Amino acid sequence: MKSDCQLVMLRHGESEWNKKNLFTGWRDVPLSPQGEEEAREAGRMLGAQGFSFDVAFTSVLSRAIKTLWLALEQMDLMWIPIHKHWRLNERHYGALQGSDKVDAVKRFGEAQVKQWRRGYAIRPPLVSAESGDYPKTDPRYAGLTEAELPRGESLKDVLERVLPYWETCIVPELAAGKRVLIAAHGNSLRALMKYLENMSDSEIVDVNLPTGIPRAYSLDDQFKPAAVRFLGDAAQIQAKIESVQKQTHAQA
User: Does residue 12 have an active-site annotation?
Assistant: First the structure.
């Protein structure tokens, strides 16, 4: 069976900080053992359903890179070109990075934390330029200008940095007839979903992207979805979406 989908987006597998329920952002946190298996399973599922790819894109954060490697390994596609770019990084969570999500709710309130996590235009508390979470000294970002280096981002900010990369680097590959896999993060992919699927600012608030579940697109000649679907068992996918929704809820 050969797939007619030109684009698949894959959120990285569970990271060690997803497991601990911490805000991660631009912190470079590895996959958990479960996350590694999620990545392998995504690759097995894609291969079994007839997907193949000509080129892949990912961020410069290891959890997304390793997810891509593990998925491609299962498909025997480790040889295809891979492009890494900071514009596909997770949303920078500012001063929330490293903090527990439930503790953040206790401190700031559930409504405020939901806006920071899922809202469109609300930035979290920003870090100072002297903070270790300001990425200026990280060699991955050595070529960025001060205006490009975030101290905390809204989803709107993320879309504004993802969209130029989509238009100048990914769309040309699609236009050339290539099949594209993007392995990235919950918020960089939510931003791209908002754009591709014409979601409103309010609709994106309730969109939760589960780890390790491929989302496949058949695109029209304007590179907008003619058809889109998650791959896998519907009940399992819904359970994973609900687990993302519950990350800020205290355990009973």
Answer: yes
pLDDT recorded at residue 252: 33
Domain boundaries of the chain, sorted by first residue = 7-151+177-186+196-233
CB 98 within 8 A of CB 27: yes
User: pTM for the whole thing?
Assistant: 0.93
Q: H/E element holding 230?
A: strand 225-230
- Is residue 38 part of the annotated active site? The answer reads no
pLDDT of residue 147: 93
Residues of the chain with pLDDT under 50: 251-252
Write the pLDDT tens digit of every residue in 9-28. 999 999 999 999 999 999 99
pLDDT digits (tens, 9 = 90+) for 129-181: 999 999 999 999 999 999 999 999 999 999 999 999 999 999 999 999 999 99
Q: Is CATH 3.40.710.10 what the domain over 7-151+177-186+196-233 is classified as, yes or no?
A: no
H/E run at residue 56: strand 55-58
Q: Which of 90, 92, 173, 185 is catalytic?
A: 90
Render the burial of 188-222: b for 16+ CB within 10 Å, e for the rest: bbbbbbbbbeebeeeebbebbbbbbbbbbbebeee
Q: Report the distance separating Cα 95 and Cα 112, nearest Å.
A: 14
Q: CA dist 39 to 73, 118, 133, Å?
A: 10, 24, 27
Which residue in 12, 14, 41, 153 is the catalytic one? Answer: 12
